User: Which sequence fits this backbone?
């Protein structure tokens, strides 16, 4: 277990260096390609209830995806992380413009405040699709997160929902694709990874 943790930490450091070397224009270019691939994806087109992360500077930018979700009349859910645990909820967003008024966390991510009464995806109709962030991915569907376990824990909860596990798509820069991601028993594979260099 300690060896696995150490291997993951080393790989996280390596990938962070690669991402830091990508210029802003290149990040934008790759993000646009990934966005177009997603929008044309049959799974995305057929799904109604979609969870998507609000991107940080070192992740594929998701603003255009969120705008498209609303443009197509789909339902959009965004993460709310509990900072002292691995608990995360996916809360319904009513309009793309509402993102700008959300409070900013210590990680510099916007998320719904504690006092907001909004629908949690699993308390109602579940989710059809989760768009997954990650630091690294391999071609076998293994994902390297930031080490908090939010998404793995949430997917376990999804599996207990009557609707079952949603389809999962990782969004990545090509620099985030690795030969092999070290994984443990609690790491859940994702169904597909979209990146610019395919």
Assistant:
């Amino acid at each position: 277990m300690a060896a696995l943790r150490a291997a993951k930490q080393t790989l996280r450091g390596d990938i962070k260096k690669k991402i830091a070397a990508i210029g802003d224009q290149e990040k934008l270019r790759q993000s646009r390609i990934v966005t177009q691939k997603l929008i044309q994806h049959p799974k995305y087109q057929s799904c109604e209830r979609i969870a998507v992360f609000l991107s940080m500077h070192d992740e594929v930018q998701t603003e255009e995806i969120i705008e498209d979700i609303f443009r197509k009349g789909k339902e959009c859910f965004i993460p709310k992380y509990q900072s002292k645990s691995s608990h995360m909820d996916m809360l319904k967003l009513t309009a793309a413009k509402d993102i700008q008024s959300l409070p900013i966390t210590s990680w510099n991510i916007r998320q719904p405040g504690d006092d907001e009464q909004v629908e949690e995806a699993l308390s109602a109709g579940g989710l059809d699709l989760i768009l997954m962030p990650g630091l690294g991915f391999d071609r076998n569907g293994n994902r390297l997160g930031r080490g908090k376990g939010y998404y793995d824990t949430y997917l376990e909860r999804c599996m207990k929902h009557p609707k079952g596990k949603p389809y999962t798509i990782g969004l990545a820069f090509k620099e985030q694709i690795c030969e092999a991601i070290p994984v443990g028993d609690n790491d859940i594979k994702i169904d597909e990874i979209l990146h610019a260099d395919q």
